[in-house]
Every structure is written in C-alpha cells, then in structure tokens.
Specification:
By secondary structure, the protein is of the alpha+beta class. It has three domains: 138 residues, Probable tRNA modification gtpase trme, domain 1 (Gyrase A, domain 2), CATH 3.30.1360.120; 102 residues, Alpha-Beta Plaits, CATH 3.30.70; 79 residues, Aminomethyltransferase beta-barrel domains (Elongation Factor Tu (Ef-tu), domain 3), CATH 2.40.30. It contains ten helices and 20 strands. The strands form four sheets. The protein has a six-stranded mixed beta sheet. A six-stranded antiparallel beta barrel has the order 15-18-17-16-19-20.
C-alpha cells in the first residue's frame, strides 16, 4: 500500500495536536483538541481556517484551454470572465457526475481546475493540463469574520470578491486567492506555494482564526445543504436529481449526457435530493427512509447539527407515484431507520442553516 500524501502544513497540524485521518489518499486533520463542535461553531460565529490541500489543482493553459474546459465540463464558461470562479461538473455519457470541481479563471488563457482528492487524475485526463497539486497548499478561511481577521494580516487576500479570483503575494511568494468555500459562510480559499504555506497558516491562526478539521468541514457543508462527491454526487446521480440544474449549460454546443438531462428536466427526475430534520439523535448516511410504511429513499449524508441542535440528513427520495410525496413537497413526515430504530423526521428545504452573506 502506498504511503499517504501529506500537506505542506502537516507539521503544523501535528504541533497543534490535531487528530489525523486518511482521506482520499491523504493524511489530514480530522479535528484539533478543541473538538469538531467548537470548530464548527467558530466558523458560524467568527472564523475558522481549513487545510484543504488534499483537493487537486489541474492547471490548464494555452490558446485552446477555454475550448477544452467548455467541451469537458457541464457549466458554461460564457457565464463568467477572467478573474472569476465557477462551480461545474464532469459528467459521464449517462449524465452521472464523475466529479464536481471549481474552475478558477486565473488569466486570459489560464485556468486552475480543482477536483476532489481521489479524482484529480481522471479530471486531468478529461480536461488536459498539468497536475500542480504537490507544489502548493490551499488554505480556506471561512466565517462571518473571515475577511476582517484575514485583512489584519493580508489585506490583499481578504479583498477578493465573492466568486472572484485574483493574483496576489504573501511575503514575496505568488499566491492565488478566490472568494470560494464549502461551508455556507463567506470567506476565501488561498493557493500558496508549499514553502510559504506555514508562515501564512501561522499568521492566520495568530490573527484569531480557529483551526478546523475535516469533521467540522463536513458538518458545516451538511448544514449548508452542499453535496459531497461519493454521497450526494457520483455514479447514477445527475445534476438534475441533485437539484443542481444551474450547473448545466443547457445552450452549449457540446454537453455530455444532454439527452438524459433534457429528459429529466422535461419529465422530472425519478428521485430528488431533500433535507430531513429529526430530533436530537444524529441521522446517518445509508439509512432507509419510509413514508406510510413505504420505502421512498435513503440518506446520503447525516449528522447532528450544532446550530440547530437536531439530527439532519440529506436524502434521495423517490419522486414518482404515491411514494413520491416526500420528494415533491416539504413538511412531510417520514421515518428514518437507524439500525432498526425508527426515528421520526420531516422533509425540509435546503439549506438547513443559512450562512453569513457575502460582502
């Protein structure tokens, strides 16, 4: 078995007492001594920083870069311009989501495509370009006070607009910063050369931003109703089923899986992603969901919401026939089977928790 990859910030995590776990082939911090709930609430109430260096970076450059990405990905790059970021999907012929990515349009003919850790090579094969993951760290600073605290140490990095992208420097090193994130809160993500990552991390933490691990990142994105590849996205799941039709460039000349997507948009998908809220017991992925004794779907992600103080889950629910009531409306009572224990829940719109507005 190959040794796990490590972030340029690995030593900083060890020194801080982080609990490390394997994720997507990387050894990354799950939590710090303060614990996942405290890290989660710090992001909702003030600001938290996350090492997300396990995400890939595929650099696509040259006069044909725009055309390659426009053909390969689901979204339409005509919707944005250089200096902006766009969420998109890599689709299969049946419109399944092979991966979800963020595209940073860094220059006229230069793009950084950021796939999930385990999908970096498949994405690189689909779009071309070079895998430059090893040469940088990516630090996400998120929360209602993210920009003000970051601005105290690096004003140039804090000034990027929501879904904007800009080139900047940190202690003389070139960095790329984008107004993106995965928590539902305002904030930025910073790609910094590996050799300069430690000093930036230390400065951000020293400014009062709380280090947070993958545990809080997952509960935050769940509260925000954001999908995770391998759970809400993957083989057999289309953007329409996931409630992400806006990720599709319907007017593009080339769109993989077009016939399936058009049919789902016209006729409605066979299942839809919905939110479930229960009592204080955490909900879990894989749990069966029933309504009036009929199985209507299963949970794809579940946990306990530190903000709501209740169990929450994302679930794919059938949307056809009598069993489709849970997918078609909100406020529908359902039952989640937690290893033989029935737990009452209700279908709700997403997100579960609205984050801080972008500034």
């Amino acid at each position: 078995m190959a040794s796990p990859r490590r972030s340029p910030l690995h030593d900083a995590h060890v020194a801080a007492g982080a609990r490390l776990v394997l994720f997507g082939g990387w050894e990354m911090p799950l939590s710090y001594p303060s614990g996942t709930v405290a890290e989660h609430l710090a992001c909702r109430r003030s600001a938290a920083c996350f090492d997300v260096s396990h995400l890939g970076t595929v650099r696509v450059a040259g006069p044909d870069a725009w055309e390659r990405l426009q053909r390969a990905l689901s979204n339409d790059l005509r919707r944005i311009a250089p200096g902006h970021a766009q969420y998109s999907h890599l689709l299969d012929d049946d419109a399944s989501v092979v991966d979800d990515v963020i595209v940073w349009w860094t220059g006229d003919d230069s793009f950084d495509v950021m796939p999930n850790a385990s999908n970096t090579e498949p994405v690189r094969q689909a779009v071309g370009g070079d895998d430059v993951t090893a040469g940088r760290a990516v630090i996400a600073v998120q929360g209602p006070e993210a920009r003000s605290l970051l601005g105290g140490v690096a004003p140039e990095l804090a000034a990027v607009a929501r879904f904007g992208v800009r080139q900047a420097t940190w202690e003389g090193a070139p960095v790329t910063v984008a107004g993106t994130g995965y928590t539902g809160e305002d904030g930025v993500e910073i790609a910094v050369p590996a050799e300069a990552a430690g000093s930036l991390w230390s400065a951000v933490v020293g400014a009062g931003v709380v280090p947070a691990g993958l545990g809080a990142r997952d509960t935050l994105r769940l509260e925000a109703g954001l999908p995770l590849y391998g759970h809400e996205l993957g083989p057999g799941i289309t953007p329409v089923q996931a409630g992400l039709s806006w990720v599709v460039g319907w007017d593009k000349a080339e769109l993989r899986g077009r016939d399936v997507l058009v049919a789902e948009r016209r006729d409605g998908p066979r299942r839809r992603l919905r939110g479930l809220v229960a009592g204080r017991r955490p909900l879990r992925d894989g749990a069966t969901v029933t309504a009036d004794g009929v199985t209507i779907g299963h949970c794809t992600s579940g946990s306990f919401s530190p903000v709501l103080g209740r169990g929450i889950a994302l679930a794919y629910l059938d949307s056809s026939g009598d069993a489709g009531a849970g997918a078609g409306t909100f406020g529908v009572p359902v039952v989640v089977d937690l290893r033989g224990t029935p737990v009452d829940a209700t279908t709700v719109p997403l997100p579960f928790v609205a984050g801080s507005p972008a500034r």
